[in-house]
Design goal:
It contains 8 helices and no strands. By secondary structure, it is mostly helical. The protein has one domain. Helix 1 crosses helix 5 and helix 3 crosses helix 6. The protein is elongated, with a radius of gyration of 22 Å.
């Protein structure tokens, strides 16, 4: 039998996890309430969009380019065995647009943006800047949290679109070198293979990815505790929790899409 100490420890972990889920849900509900209240911090929203996009653009581009290169290089020999190299543009485009591009870009942004939000808000919490904003009559939740969550929600689809384009270009370079495929021929096959059923679900779920990244990062940073040591903990836990949440959202999105297109 399992020792009682281990049982109590497991129960404690489950209890703390469920409590955190409840607090996160309450935090999300507060976000939706505050989003429709004035004043609208439009300038801060635009500043956050610029900062998040600017900080992540190069990393997303480099990662997307390498994914396109590696995926094509690894897949090409297998397709050659079956004499199906001509299907390479179609296979790569559907794989990247549907799944690889969105989830990889979201994970990169979870590490780059989510940890940054957690550390930034956490440092503001432990240095009592958020408390000072509340005392001065400013709504810190509206100014700090709502703007950041909305910025991640709107910026992630743009970053995914950019990363997908760079990935396809990297794949084209491999096909151009290995198979002497022209730019026009390659992308004609790419666009002929893609349908709205590939683009729309992939685009919709990126908004949920962005919302999850901003929500968890803000939640961990806004309620940061334990002094300066809690700042690092908030940044780390934001990345871990967001990564788990992204895979769950992705599974739900794929499951719902499969049901919808089977009807």
């Amino acid at each position: 039998m399992m020792p009682m100490n281990a049982v109590f420890k497991i129960i404690g972990i489950i209890k703390s996890f469920l409590l955190e889920i409840g607090e996160l849900s309450f935090f999300a509900g507060r976000f939706f309430r505050e989003s429709f209240r004035r004043p609208m911090e439009f300038k801060e929203f635009l500043r956050q969009c610029y900062n998040m996009g600017n900080r992540s653009l190069l990393l997303v581009a480099v990662t997307g380019f390498i994914i396109g290169l590696v995926f094509t290089l690894q897949s090409r020999p297998t397709l050659q065995e079956f004499g199906a190299v001509s299907w390479m543009p179609s296979m790569v485009s559907i794989s990247i647009i549907r799944e690889i591009g969105p989830i990889i870009t979201a994970l990169i942004c979870a590490g780059r943006i989510g940890s940054g939000i957690g550390a930034e808000l956490g440092s503001m919490r432990v240095t009592e800047q958020i408390d000072a904003m509340e005392v001065s009559g400013t709504n810190p939740f509206k100014y700090l949290v709502v703007t950041r969550i909305m910025a991640t929600t709107f910026m992630l689809p743009i970053l995914v679109f950019f990363g997908d384009a760079i990935s396809l270009f990297g794949s084209y370079l491999v096909e151009n070198v290995k198979g002497h495929v022209s730019f026009l021929l390659y992308f004609n096959q790419v666009f002929n293979a893609l349908e709205f059923g590939d683009l729309i679900p992939a685009t919709i779920k990126t908004f949920f990815f962005g919302f999850a990244i901003g929500l968890v990062g803000c939640f961990k940073g806004y309620y940061c505790k334990k002094g300066t040591a809690g700042v690092g903990l908030a940044a780390n836990s934001a990345v871990v929790f967001t990564s788990m949440l992204l895979f769950i959202i992705d599974f739900i999105a794929v499951f719902v899409t499969d049901i919808f297109y089977d009807l």
